[in-house]
Amino acid sequence: MDIGALVTAAGPQAGVGGVLVVLLVWVMRNAASDRGDYRTALADAEQRHAAELARVNAARDDEVAELRDQIDELRARVDLLAAQLDDERRRRWEAEDAAAKARRGAT
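Now predict its structure.
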């Protein structure tokens, strides 16, 4: 639609009001077109954002799973070291008890 031809043709017959109506219709059509483009761009941006969130969440889930595995390994190692420490303490106590019995028996 050529707006210049419409304004020129409607100008003398419709006056200023007619020209304003033609301009208003033209602006509304362009606004509707722009709004449609905006909605399309917004929907595309939402899809890209959702894909990025899914990717980030998947990476985070992988990292959390890896950290949980490391925590489990470290807990197992701590339990092993605690058991070794308890065994060492028991052996030391037994050695101290044996030394004390030997001293009491020797005197």
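The chain has one helix and no strands.
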